[in-house]
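Can't paste images in this forum, so I'm doing it all in text. The chain is below; anyone willing to post the predicted structure tokens underneath?
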Amino acid sequence: MQDPRIADFLEALQLERDASPHTVTAYRTDLAELQAYLEARRLDLDRVTGRDLEPYALGLRERGLSPATVRRRLAAARSLLRHRAREGAREAGVRDVPLPKAPQSPPHALTAEQAIALCEHPGPDPLGLRDRAVLELLYGAGLRVSELVGLRPGDLDLEAGLVRVLGKGGKERVVPTGGQAVQAVERYLARGRAHLGRRQDHEALLVNNRGGRLTRRGVFLIVRRHAEPLGLPDWVGPHALRHAFATHLVEGGCDLRTVQELLGHQRIATTAIYTHVAGTHLRDTFLAAHPRARAA
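Text version of the structure:
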């Protein structure tokens, strides 16, 4: 039986912090394991300390769970305890949950030539026109998959080349997109969409072959359908085009603050990883441009 204090936290997570259903489900699973650990050792949720949870953290690692999974479960525990402190149920200043540092490895990045070849691969049939619009928007506007599938017809200002998207936490932003993406969407709307399903979801910009709103899984399959014939690696999925969008902007000289706004990142540190991906290009640019870059 779920601890009512955990149930209260999950409800706050959903209603007050606008967490997605997927996030709430993940937290519920992670905290069920924490609850079992506390009950087995007769530890009270509102009295437990970070030191009490060190064996819990060690046990997660010894089970062979991935570092990302261990970190996620400990982060869920930390969020719960901080919530209880904000509610006044826990003493302030108690030692926090030990949270291992997340290893930051640069994301894989498509070259500009690979990204362009991928976007241009779909054919001229209705599904091809839809796929081209999907790929061009992912690469041309740097959208998350959830943002892409949530687009409505009125969210695009094709004349101005702007897209209004609803990002994480329900935060809205307006981003520019390239002329190629605008043309792809125009062709899809003019010659493709009407042929996809008899009853269409008119609230959705992008629809599947039955006329319903395109899903995240559907977008993944679209990317893979066009990546495989080009011989692109297995890691190429929808997010690879978002990474390519950011990487190629940085390589082209775009400043990180602008890239941060375009991607909808809350923290500049999240965006800074693209300086590592584009590091060779940036170094070459620096060496060529700065008068004191080279040794005598």
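The chain has a mean pLDDT of 85. The two ends are 72 Å apart (CA to CA).
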